[in-house]
Amino acid sequence: MKTLTALFTCLSTCLFASTAGAASGPSISDEPAAPIRTTFDCALAKVTIEKLICRDPQLKQMDMEVFRLYRLALTDERAVPPPKKIIVDQQFWVDARSQCGADPDPKACAIRRYAERAHQLRQGSTIARTKDPYRLTEGPVAFRCNGLNGAVTASFFMMQPGLVYLKWANGAVTLSQVASDNGTRYTGKDAQGSYSFWQSDDAVVFQKPGAGEMRCSAQATD
C-alpha cells in the first residue's frame, strides 16, 4: 500500500504543480505560463464540441493528454491492441467525441469520452503509462472491493478539478475531485444515481448508487 499512498498523496498535494508542468513543461517562475494548446486549430473549429474544447481549459488539457498518450501508444509494438488497431480506434473515438455536441451536457459527455480513451490507452501500453514526467494521468490501478465481483480499475487525472475514471465488469463512471478534510474524495452522478470514491490513511472506499460503502484494496500499481 506504500505505492498507493504515495499516488494519492501526489493527487492531493501536487495537483497544481503537475497541471502546470503538463500544460507547458518546465518554466521560469517569473515568466507567464504558455497558453494551453489543442490538437486542432481553434481558428478553424467548426464542430460544436471542438468550439467548446477551445473555450474550456480543462477540456484543452484532456485533449492534449489523450493525444500525447495516443502518440506514445503508436510507438509501442507490444501495445494491446497493436498500433494499427489503435489508429482505427482513435478515428472512431474522434467521431464519438464529436457526437457530444448534441448531448444535453456536452462538457460532461466530452470529459467522459476523454477519460475513457486515456484509460484505454494507458491500460494497453506500458510506454504510454511510463514516459514523460509531465503527464497529467496516473494508473490504471486495480482494486478489489468487498461485495463487488471482479476488479475496479482506476485512472487518475491531475488537473482542476481532478478526475478519476473507474471501470468494473458491468459499468464505468467518471468522478470529479471535491474538497475533503480527510483524504482524497471524488463524487459524481450518472443515470443510475450518485457515486463516491474516497481514500484516506491507506483505506479506499467505493460507493455505487443504492449500495453501501465498499472497502477496497489495491491489487497492482505501475
Write a brief caption for the model.
The protein is α+β, with helices and mostly antiparallel strands and 222 residues long.
Estimate what percentage of residues fall within beta strands. Answer: 25-35%
**Largest sheet, described in full?**
8 strands, antiparallel, barrel
Number of domains: 2
- Class by SSE composition: alpha+beta
Termini separation:
12 Å
Number of strands: 8
Envelope shape? globular
**How are helices and strands ordered from N to C?**
HHHHHHHEEEEEEEE
Q: In order across it, which strands form the biggest sheet? A: 1-2-3-4-5-6-7-8
Mean pLDDT: 85
Residue share in helices? 25-40%
Rg calculated over all Cα atoms: 17 Å
How many alpha or pi helices?
A: 7
So what's the oligomer here? single chain
The unreliable regions are: 12-35
Tell me about this structure:
The protein is α+β, with helices and mostly antiparallel strands and 222 residues long. Helices cover 40% and strands 26% of the residues. Strand 3 (163-168) and strand 4 (171-178) form a beta hairpin. The protein is globular, with a radius of gyration of 17 Å. The relative contact order is 0.14. One of its GO terms (cellular component) is extracellular region.
Which helices and strands, and how do they pair?
Layout: H1 2-13, H2 15-24, H3 48-55, H4 57-74, H5 83-98, H6 106-124, H7 126-130, E1 137-145, E2 151-157, E3 163-168, E4 171-178, E5 184-190, E6 193-200, E7 203-207, E8 214-220
Antiparallel strand pairs: 1-2, 1-8, 2-3, 3-4, 4-5, 5-6, 6-7, 7-8
Helix pairs in contact: 3-4, 4-6, 5-6
